[in-house]
Amino acid sequence: KAANAQVLYDFTAEPGNNELTVKEGETITITNPNIGGGWIEAQNSRGEIGLVPEDYIEVKQKIAVGQDKHFTSYTGLQCTFCDACNQITHFTLMDSWTPSRCTVYSRTLIVPVSKNITLKVCMHSTTGADDDEWDDEWDDVKSTGGYAESETGEGGAMQRGGAHATSMKIALNKFPGFSKSGPELYLLCKQLAKGKDRLPIYMGEVGPVWFYPETQLDCVVADPKKGSKMYGLKSYIEYQITPNTTNRPVNHRYKHFDWLYERLLDKFGSAIPIPSLPDKQVTGRFEEEFIKMRMERLQGWMTRMCRHPVVSNSEVFQLFLSYKDEKDWKTGKRKAEKDETVGVMIFSTIEPEASDLDPVEVEQKCEQFSRFTKAMDDGVKEILTVGHEHWKRCTGPLPKEYQRIGKAFQNLSSVFTSSGYQGESTLTDALTAAGKTYEEIAQLVAEQPRKDLHFLMETNNEYKGLLGCFPDTIGVHKAAIDKVKEGDKLVATSKITPQEKVTMAKRLSTMSYALQAEMNHFHSNRIYDYNRVMQLYLEEQVKFYETIAEKLRQAHSQFTTM
Amino acid sequence: KAANAQVLYDFTAEPGNNELTVKEGETITITNPNIGGGWIEAQNSRGEIGLVPEDYIEVKQKIAVGQDKHFTSYTGLQCTFCDACNQITHFTLMDSWTPSRCTVYSRTLIVPVSKNITLKVCMHSTTGADDDEWDDEWDDVKSTGGYAESETGEGGAMQRGGAHATSMKIALNKFPGFSKSGPELYLLCKQLAKGKDRLPIYMGEVGPVWFYPETQLDCVVADPKKGSKMYGLKSYIEYQITPNTTNRPVNHRYKHFDWLYERLLDKFGSAIPIPSLPDKQVTGRFEEEFIKMRMERLQGWMTRMCRHPVVSNSEVFQLFLSYKDEKDWKTGKRKAEKDETVGVMIFSTIEPEASDLDPVEVEQKCEQFSRFTKAMDDGVKEILTVGHEHWKRCTGPLPKEYQRIGKAFQNLSSVFTSSGYQGESTLTDALTAAGKTYEEIAQLVAEQPRKDLHFLMETNNEYKGLLGCFPDTIGVHKAAIDKVKEGDKLVATSKITPQEKVTMAKRLSTMSYALQAEMNHFHSNRIYDYNRVMQLYLEEQVKFYETIAEKLRQAHSQFTTM
Q1: Is B291 on the interface with A (CB under 8 A)?
Q2: What are the φ/ψ torsions at residue A62 (nearest 5 degrees)?
């Protein structure tokens, strides 16, 4: 079931890396979608085969009509199929390009409205893994004819931070902080929130810091279980989440994680970068591998949220982790959805203990954070690029070469055994053992990336996602700075009172304390995370080289020169 | 000074190895002749660059006319230039293709007679390294017009054994055992040699064996010195050879080694495989490297000859190692050149102590040796092929990748340093150290092949050369077997007497004992050599992996999670 794909961007192969040079607009055939590390193997029209970054292509396929009772046909659409499962199992209709998501591999697809072509949508999720927003939105599509969904559904997923930056095609405008009103909604509001929602900022050793609870919240995501509905036609995965506070497990589907993400983004997104949920990046050759990978990433996401003192202490997050029963969950859900302290209004709950900052200092801080996050984004992406290359080599050409070395030694040993000369069994046994050792090394080399590089890549991927959120967070901040700079003009033209100008500067100071607290939180996490992942990486690398050295030492001991 | 080259054979690039696919007859441009390991880097007409085996190409270049007083022009020739030095400094004219040798890099070139093109021959050897047969044969060419040389000079070098098999173009017919007369010269000769030339064969534990002296001859080739003649226009290298018998050094130029090789081939070639001298395979980026490499290989050749009980004990070999003065050397030289016990007549000096063998058994043994040497030739070539690949990867893409990993860590460390967050110098120092460690690993990886793979390759190259001689040695033997099989017919047609038929069978038995003794010598050397080289290889490999593990362990120790 080789799928064709269209090349979205020019890509020039680096020599010696098994890569394939492709041009924008060129059509290629996917020969192996399961390379991993962000690569697929494809063949061009000249028959050349090589690796291409999966972000650079879009899988297209002509659509066959109604061969199966599980398919429902829709006309008026041309669609791109999931490059891994070759099916579309979910889509949202829009009057322009719209992203759709494969329910098996959770990849975001592009569904352009185009000539009269019939789109078949598989209702029978073949592997059973399920994004499970599917059912809801499927129903929506059916009831509305599909053209009323442009403001809901997948659109939100597409513009979450920078994790998808390279594949983003549409700039939607749904981000809470960028509503018509902008940061002035907060800067000029009459009344600040009071009471239990209050978020204090203290002065710590490193500067402004959030309030950190004495015991840090944590949770374990485990035990994925398959459930089904619609008489077994649709199946989904339910995860068990156990927080260290109640120690009582609650169940959630991916859909609920996504709901939580949307709430956190709405509520905190202007002040705190909320990284997107793992979705389209998740791939896996088998269903179990896919589920395991997604669970690992959901765990990573939850751990990061638990570690955040503001997020973890929020009502909606606590609800998610420790609702008592279905009724409790539904009530809490409804309440969270009605929360009005969202977008820039989150700043109205923040109370710094220190004195107000000068707008000039605020701007300097902001510039510094902006420079740093941009630079770190570049650094992280460099590591990811190099890591992908290395992964490819370690799982491709390198083990093949060690295998060939091993085979060559063993073949020579066989030849020597046939010599008819007596007393050379020590040599031939030793040569065979040396050959087998190199075959074992081949396997060690191929398996190693999953043991060390994997975690280095995961951590950097997480940071890439986090860093991709900063431009938005910093954007809100910069808009506020600009507003305050306009202060005099606004007073002169009677748009605001002199008192409001003073209030704006004070509130900008509050926003700056929030940004600084968040940066300090980011830095302390970053230092911990990179220390930890480098330790893990180097520890496994040491083991790897030591294991090889030990195997070779044993092989060496079998040779004798009389 | 990029040289063009013509592709001699189709070569298909293996993906991921930096190789370039080329077609027979295609013209490519050499972009780097100094890759080593039997590869050159070239560019095709489409601008693609990659590695091509140097055996697969032939360097061609248009010849400019008379720009320099050191050049002498010859017309009527088209010539191929040395791909390393871009000059021809020696050639022999023939009425068909003739090999010529570059005096700088000792590569054999092809000089076809063709349209009226002027060949310029540089009389001024630019780097000074010198094959130094040059002067003699240069004189010959001048005096005879060049067309009388077809039976002497380089022709001999071209058909030495299998080392050059892949680049052989002409089947000359100079091998002593294949003269008009063939093995019957010995099988039917009247009188066998007697006296001090006698070569006894004893029955040892492993079967027939040569007589081994109590102390094994050995010698050290060292101290290459530049000499010059023709008022400094020609220079050459003289090596000092010190045998363990006299412990008195003698000096020889490459030319003398070649003379010795020719004598040994003439005298023993029918019974004992005499490997060719290192020549065209020798390459080096710098003159010193070239001289060192040639010396290393001359040492290897001399050691192998010293280890051979028959060769090392021969008068000509002893003369080479321990002549007393110039007069002694010249007298000995003349005597050796007049030796008539050459070609198949060497068998007339061999005296086995065991009883005669049945011709059927002789044939079985011969078949077995033939199969074994063919199989080992394949095995050795496989190791060489795999070794070349591995060499290329270890000195090319792999260290580049480790370097990039190292740079990525160091870049991230720089970014972290710019965070403005206090107290992360432990992390940034550790990250920088880890980055530097990977740069060091890059260097270790790139340097490693010279420490281990080099010797594995050299030993297998030596064996490839040796094994390439066996088809000729076994060919003489098979011709003798066929002759003896014809015995009855020859008697019936009165070509030979019944007594001569008996003598032929007896002498074939002697030849078989010689072949068996030689095989047993080969086997015992082989077992020693492969044990030794594998020990060396694995020892260095263990050191390599241990060094890396230790470096990484140190890098690891710098990270801390509080």
Answers
A1: no
A2: -65, 150
Task: Judge contact between B74 and B94, C-beta under 8 A.
Answer: no
A386/B396 CB distance under 8 A? no
The answer to whether the Cα torsion of B161, B164, B168, B174 is positive or negative is negative
Q: Among all residues of chain B, which has the CA nearest to that of A408?
A: B383
Residue A47 touches partner B, C-beta closer than 8 Å = no
Taking the complete model, does pTM exceed 0.80, yes or no?
no
* Residue boundaries of the structural domains of chain B: 4-60, 71-146, 181-353, 355-562
> A-chain residues within 8 Å CB-CB of B523?
419, 421, 424
Q: Check whether B120 is labelled as a binding-site residue.
A: no
Q: Rounded to an integer, what distance in angstroms lies between the CA atom of residue B511 and that of residue B359? A: 11
Residue B425 at interface with chain A, using a CB cutoff of 8 Å: no
Q: CATH class for domain A178-354?
A: alpha beta
Give the position of tokens 């092989």. Answer: A555
For residue B92, give the DSSP letter: -
Q: What is the ipTM of this complex?
A: 0.72
The token duo for A143 is 């009831």
Please give the single-letter amino acid code of residue B274: I
**Among residues B34, B30, B15, which one has the least CA distance to residue B395?**
B34
What is the C-alpha separation between B8 and B59, in angstroms, rounded? 10
Homologous superfamily assigned to B355-562: Arfaptin homology (AH) domain/BAR domain (1.20.1270.60)
Task: Look at the alpha carbons of A391, A395, A400, A406 in this order and tell me if their dihedral is positive or negative.
Answer: positive
What residues have CB less than 8 Å from B137, skipping those under 6 apart? Answer: B90, B92, B149, B152, B153, B154
**Token digits for B435?**
């980055």
CATH number corresponding to B4-60: 2.30.30.40
Q: How far apart are CA A230 and CA A130, in angstroms?
A: 13
- pLDDT, tens digit (0-9, with 9 covering 90-100), for B6-56: 888 888 887 777 889 999 888 888 888 777 767 788 898 888 898 888 778
B315: closest CA among B331, B291, B300?
A: B331
Q: CA of B297, closest CA in chain A: separation in Å?
A: 22
Amino acid at A372: F
Do the chains contact at B408 and A530, CB–CB below 8 Å? no
CA separation for the pair A516, A207 (Å, rounded): 8
CATH fold label, B181-353: PX Domain (3.30.1520)
B292 C-beta neighbours (distance < 10 Å), count: 13
**What is the distance between the alpha carbons of residues B63 and A418, in angstroms, rounded to a whole number?**
53
Residues in chain B, overall count: 562
Angstrom distance (rounded) from CA B418 to CA B421 = 8
pLDDT tens, A206-260? 999 999 998 899 999 998 888 776 555 566 788 999 999 999 999 999 889 999 9
Q: For residue A117, what are its two tokens? A: 């072509």
C-alpha distances (whole Å) from A301 to each of A134, A258, B221, B484 are 22, 11, 68, 86
Point out the residues of chain A with pLDDT beneath 50: 1, 61-80, 82-84, 87-181, 280-282, 284-285
Tokens of A44: 């061009």
